[in-house]
């Protein structure tokens, strides 16, 4: 029976973090470059179908890539090893395929509304995005489980790098078909096949595992709710009658302040296996120190984010997104603080996943949702209310994650004692 891998040494951990930070940064920057190529090639109106497909790409990453990746990374760090992944992967792959086909069916039923009169191929692209997202999750998870974080970083950067190359080729050739640029988006998933060995788990370990579908479905539901909280503010504001400039400003503010979150999505690839090893070793004192450090760090970061958001947020927004695209200092501060809690919630989510508590993630977001309703009703003007809704949900979810993580450790320690 193979044993969980030991925690990484400090130099190796710093090196891994550097690789992952660079890969995540490049992935984020190249995402903006890709969409800029799309809009400059097609124009704002014709690019709309690709924008809808791009939105689905974001949700597919949360609902499919993230859960599959962290399920594999956690499983590889347990005694079951990659043999457990090998055993459960067919069931997980079938679930990913089913979700992708279901999304494609919805897209087909609403094809004119979502993609326009000439979007008949986009439902198939929706299916391809779902399947590709699951495949990337397998590759990143397997590479993370093998501690090949340099390769994980390269895969992060190459995903959108390949999209940019395809879109640049279409732009240079003068192609004006949205479907072609949709195919360029799908081309990013070719990054997965550059690591063919990562698509086939090894037969190492005992093969014993928790129910993979329960883990993946819980993580998927939780990440969907987290994604909706993180990015859904402009949709809510538009739905309640916010002025178009306000919707644009809120979208820009959220995009700016969640930049650290986007960077951390790649960095946490190294965290799952490490935390799982600590949980498996029942190293409660170290886990407690990590939790306390994260709690104190989150509160300090929230304070700094509020001050910095109020002071620098409005001018930086105008510098990046153009004159007039700005939130008022108070609103920028609220969004910045909410984004700080969102970053902490990502790390705490990985902590619960490392403990095998994926169902608790979704429950935490559901419990936090009423706080957003209360904040909205008390805050008044739609833009201000929407900003406070975002902060309230993130803050209450953060408190719930902290409490549940400590509760999980106490339960296991109590059974052990």
The share of residues in extended strands comes to: under 5%
Number of strands: 0
Low-confidence stretches: 1-7
Please write the string of helix (H) and strand (E) elements: HHHHHHHHHHHHHHHH
Biggest sheet character: none
Overall average residue pLDDT = 90
Shape: globular
Gyration radius over CA: 21 Å
What's the end-to-end separation, in Å?
25 Å
How many structural domains does the protein architecture include?
2
Structural class: mainly alpha
Helix content: over 70%
* DSSP helical segment count: 16
Describe the structure.
The protein is mainly α and 417 residues long. It folds into two domains: 10-208, no CATH class; 271-416. The chain is built from 16 helices and no strands. It has helices at 10-42, 48-77, 81-109, 111-115, 122-145, 149-173, 178-187, 212-231, 233-239, 244-257, 259-267, 271-280, 284-321, 329-354, 358-379, 382-416.
Essential attributes:
2 domains, globular, 417 residues, 16 helices
Helices and strands, with pairings:
Blueprint: H1 10-42, H2 48-77, H3 81-109, H4 111-115, H5 122-145, H6 149-173, H7 178-187, H8 212-231, H9 233-239, H10 244-257, H11 259-267, H12 271-280, H13 284-321, H14 329-354, H15 358-379, H16 382-416
